[in-house]
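In the current project phase, the collection of sequences with tokenised folds has grown. A representative record is quoted in full directly below:
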Amino acid sequence: MPAGYRRVLLVIIDGLRPDAVTAAGMPTLDRLMTLGWRAGAATTVRPSVTVAALTSLATGVSPARHGIDHPSLTRLGRIRGLAPLPVELRRHGVETTILAPTLGGATRWMAGALLRLGGVSRLGGGTGAPGLLLEQAALHLAAASGPAFVVAYVNDTDLAGHAWGWMSAPYLQAAAIIDRGLRHLEPLLEDPETLVIVTADHGGGGVLPNDHDHPHPINDRIPLVLLGTGVQRTDAPAGSAHLLDIPPTVLWSLGAAIPAQYEGRVLSEAFAPAEVLA
């Protein structure tokens, strides 16, 4: 049975490696991970590139199925045969809002494709400061009068990784700046009808210090934490959680049906038994 949440916030930190989440470097996220169900080494899709991961989050299927591993408009037709998460949520009366910084390249194309496919009610953001964007996301969710799904996407870590290398000083500084913005999520955790999910789309630096698309465990590992009053405080076994588990978990938590074609599973073990049986 669904967990009975009415609002879900999904925070995607582009290019955040699990080993960057430390008490010294990202104290807010490190502390938040102790307050919920956490998979410190979840797995992303292959290839581990942003456009592929975001499309998988949007459609519930792997790149082998949706075919989007680079920003090519010729592949959009393959998505039309799928069941995008925002469309499934809208059928259940849940509005979807995407908040992101000013986008370019593959990410801008993906956001536009989601809007063209339907289901996304609003695309906003535009500020270059991750703290302001995360604050905007938290306020938007808290002010929602009905069921709502908000996606907050920040990419400072990915930009720093490509420019100076993953785990470099500028990369860790970008992670620290994002971490300060995550403080805006804390008031949401007091609402029993709100679920917060924080994750990344990929890691980086596994083969080349400034890239992440080669097959390598460091590129494929991502942090994943679920937070809320009905979430258990526990560690997930290594390798037990996958990025593809997020879409069905979002649908389940909001009481919406999960399309049979979705490849992930509901992370039901993250929730207290009373929530699962409610």
